[in-house]
């Protein structure tokens, strides 16, 4: 079993300040429905985020997102316990792509199974209370108060996205919205996981769907390892408005890790996220990722090579963003994400080890007013207020580097100023 290089690092989760309550949620006294996490082991790294749905019907989506993160970390650990067997079979397979796809299908089934188990256990030990049901429509009051366990899973609805890296391969999985962003060795940036066209505007697929397995998307490769790969909930995506601006943010984040080091980069990201949600989407925000600290430095050699730093510092002035990047960023109110309406079946949703939802006959189409995603304007949260630019005295202190501290501090000032203006 080949160990993962020590240069590989992972990050994410509320414990590191990288899964935070959104500005709009703070304003309306609404719990954080995001969660994230990561795990760095001897032979693999994993990073994951989940975004619990924000509609009134999803009264336990904050629990659902936590269950999703835990289920992913546990299932990936089990998957990696059989990594050597997987690699041996992959090496002799006539169709490696198909073989890897089937293996990831089994991983996804296991995640769904563990999530279902967590939801069932929570419902058994903590039935819905009268206070939880009080604010619901009659439709959901009836659903959650009834005996149909299948329908009750809706209350825990969440998206899920994760990436895994080993020395021999890497892959990503996703259900729902939110972007996975991979930075390649040549600096190319893209989302490697195929997008599901069912996710648009305020609609998303979800772990609470009857056919959750069918709605997962994934990618797998034994080559072209990213130097950095990030997963984030849509509170990040919606703060930038376009892939071009979003990818510019991730390029700057990667550069920040290269210059400030792993811990310095994490701290800068942690300090930046509250400003991002306040001036951007207003939504909860979670970012997790896996970075190759040696490879990302090679993307920015003139800024990380000690022999070249002095010359660069003397010649360069503070870099300012282009004029178009200085346009005032419009604060976008957080939109409620609604999963597709689960199809009704006679089968109760009982977790099984390899449960895959069966094809069932469709029920009568609900009235337009009952469909998820049709939210009254009065139910939408108000636009989040744009945060004031922080005073100079309130900005975090510069990272402390022992070697070439003066040059690195000067370069760090340049990066911070452009980094903080990407959304302004």
Give an account of the 3D structure.
- The protein has 13 helices and 13 strands.
- The protein is an alpha+beta fold.
- The model is unreliable at 310-336 and 342-408 (pLDDT under 50).
- α3 (83-92) runs antiparallel to α4 (96-125), α8 (234-240) packs across α9 (243-279) and α9 crosses α10.
- The strands form three sheets. Strands 1, 2, 7, 8, 11 and 12 form a six-stranded antiparallel β-sheet that branches. A five-stranded antiparallel β-sheet has the order 3-4-5-6-10, covered by helices on one side.
- It starts with 7 loop residues before the first strand and ends with a helix.
- The longest helix has 37 residues, at 243-279.
- β5 and β6 (170-175) form a beta hairpin.
- It has a single domain (10-333, 381-421), classed as Phosphatase 2c, domain 1 (4-Layer Sandwich).
- Helices cover 39% and strands 14% of the residues.
- The protein is globular and about 60 Å long.
What would a concise description of this structure say?
This protein has 424 residues and is of the alpha+beta class. Helix content is 39%, strand content 14%. It contains 13 helices and 13 strands.
């Amino acid at each position: 079993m080949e160990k993962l290089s020590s240069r590989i690092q992972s990050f994410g989760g509320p414990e590191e300040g990288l899964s935070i309550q959104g500005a709009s949620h703070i304003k309306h006294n609404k719990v954080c429905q995001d969660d994230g996490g990561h795990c760095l082991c001897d032979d693999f790294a994993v990073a994951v985020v989940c975004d619990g749905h924000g509609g009134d019907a999803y009264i336990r989506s904050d629990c659902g997102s936590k269950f999703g993160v835990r289920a992913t970390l546990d299932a990936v650990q089990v998957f990696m316990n059989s990594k050597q067997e997987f690699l041996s079979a992959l090496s002799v397979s006539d169709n490696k792509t198909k073989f890897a796809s089937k293996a990831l299908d089994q991983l996804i089934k296991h995640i769904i199974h563990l999530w279902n188990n967590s939801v069932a256990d929570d419902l058994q030990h903590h039935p819905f209370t009268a206070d939880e049901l009080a604010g619901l429509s009659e439709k959901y009051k009836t659903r959650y108060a009834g005996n149909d366990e299948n329908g009750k899973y809706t209350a825990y609805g969440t998206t899920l996205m994760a990436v895994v890296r080993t020395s021999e391969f890497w892959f990503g999985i996703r259900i729902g919205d939110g972007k996975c962003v991979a930075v390649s060795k040549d600096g190319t940036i893209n989302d490697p996981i195929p997008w599901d066209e069912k996710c648009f505007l305020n609609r998303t697929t979800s772990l609470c769907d009857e056919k959750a397995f069918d709605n997962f998307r994934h990618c797998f490769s034994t080559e072209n390892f990213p130097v950095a790969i990030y997963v984030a909930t849509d509170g990040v995506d919606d703060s930038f408005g376009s892939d071009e601006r979003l990818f510019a943010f991730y390029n700057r984040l990667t550069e920040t890790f290269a210059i400030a080091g792993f811990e310095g980069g994490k701290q800068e990201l942690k300090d930046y996220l509250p400003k991002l949600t306040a001036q951007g989407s207003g939504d909860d925000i979670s970012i997790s990722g896996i970075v190759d600290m040696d490879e990302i430095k090679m993307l920015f050699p003139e800024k990380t090579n000690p022999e070249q730093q002095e010359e660069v510092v003397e010649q360069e002035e503070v870099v300012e963003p282009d004029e178009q990047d200085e346009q005032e960023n419009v604060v976008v109110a957080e939109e409620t994400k609604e999963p597709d309406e689960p199809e009704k079946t006679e089968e109760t949703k009982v977790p099984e080890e390899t449960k895959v939802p069966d094809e069932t006959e469709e029920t009568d189409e609900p009235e337009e007013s009952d469909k998820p995603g049709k939210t009254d304007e009065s139910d939408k949260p108000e636009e989040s207020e744009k945060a004031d630019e922080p005073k100079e005295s309130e900005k975090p202190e510069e990272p402390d580097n022992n070697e070439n501290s003066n040059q690195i501090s000067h370069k760090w000032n340049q990066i911070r100023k452009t980094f903080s203006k990407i959304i302004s």
